[in-house]
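Friendly challenge for the regulars: who can give me the structure tokens for this chain first? No prize, just bragging rights.
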Amino acid sequence: MAIRTISNTGGTYNSTSTWVEGIVPTAADDVVATGTSGNLTVVGVVGYCKSINLTGYTATLAINITLLVSGNITLSSSMTITGTTYININANSSITSNGKAIPFLAFSLNNVVITLVDNMYISNLLLFQSGANVQMNGNNVYCTKNVIHTGFCKVSGTTTIKLTGTGYFNGNGVFDTIYNPVVIDAGSGTITIIGAMAIGNSLIYVSGTVVKSGNIYLYLRGATAPMTVNFSPLITWENITISPTQTINILSDLYCNDLNLSRPVLTGNNIIIYRSFFSLASSGTTKLIIAGTGTWITPDYYYTLENDLIINTTGTFTLSTPTTSYLNYFTGKITYISGTIVQNGVLNITGTASLNTSGMSFTNLNITSGTITLDSTLNVSNTLTLGSSGNVIFAGSSGFTTNILSVVPSTIRTITLKDSNTYTVNSALTFTGFGAGSKLNIVSSSSTVRAIFTLNPLATQIVTNTDAVRIDSGFGQTIACGPTAVLVDTINWYYPYSPSAGNFLTMFDN
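First reply, four minutes later:
Bragging rights claimed.
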């Protein structure tokens, strides 16, 4: 390793006369300058050096072909940098900018650690090339024009990458991620997003106009700590994919055509979906709002959606279920405002979910267990199944109407109906316990007030091993229980096989 000093006359990088030592620098040499060193131009042939220290330099460095640096860089506040191509850093480096902007800077090698001694400024283009693995720590990098992040390039560290002028962010449909904080603070400028942004730390909008070029994709993935997304400009991402398993704080609404969820915890503002969303699993306080024609898809039965779901569209929303699977909803609230609903397969609901779905019908619904709050009448056009995995409690201001109601307990099950609310079955009722170990209990939530359970007079019924407590079926067909049934304060329930005076009187109790 040797020192190569820019001469007072300067010159082109690969000319021996440019250097005090009369030798062109190699990748093993350190380039330095003095206060009297002349202009240096990298042109024609790639320039190489181990490090470059331009402390005190007052002339111009023009980079018109790549200058490949394998170590530290120190710039002078008194120098000028021009050119049409890159300083390319391919090794660990400490960069001292002294307020001087680099027109083009590229990172191309795997496992490079960059330390910013002070803030770094890029006046034209910051390039993370495919295959690079760059860790950038300390201070900020200010990009007044453009950033390119190519495929399979991982960027990490503590440095904040700030887009501060009119330019573009070109993600090229990236397959890897920027784990540094990314901030858009363009002032009166315009940032154009091209391809994709893959973020693993935070994405914060402060100022400027944000537009898109063609279809753009947002990937939020792989972070090791909670992420923050505050991206208030109203642009619609072609697709938002959210894959980390930890919390993502969404501080302003996000808009997308398609949404892919893979086990995140989403908190904060809404995600508005104009087409479809694919859910492995998701939870948190963020609401998913359906605002167009699309589909809810899940690949298998053990994936559960827990975020509130709001359907507010002029289009058609399809609940699409694989033939071997279900859609699973847990804990949150489903609200219907407008739109055409199409359902194939079965939707499972469990936990402490709430439904406010007046104006729509589910086709097949399985309320497996838990407390279900009905804020409007629940309509099921085909089959409502209850209690397949535990007891079910209905709460809220309304009941349900279903074509077919089925409870076939494998063990003792209790279905609690909210007192005074009305629950209606139009075509068929199946309450079939199979003995003391699989008995069904239908009870009112009140110790004094009945729930109203109405079976259409033309409906069919199969009811065995079923007990009823404070259930009023006086507005529909009489419910015929099995011979071992226990009926307490019921109306229009009886024992078809062993009637007694006490049971008969319950038919007329008011």
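The mean pLDDT is 92. The two ends are 103 Å apart (CA to CA). Your move, everyone else.
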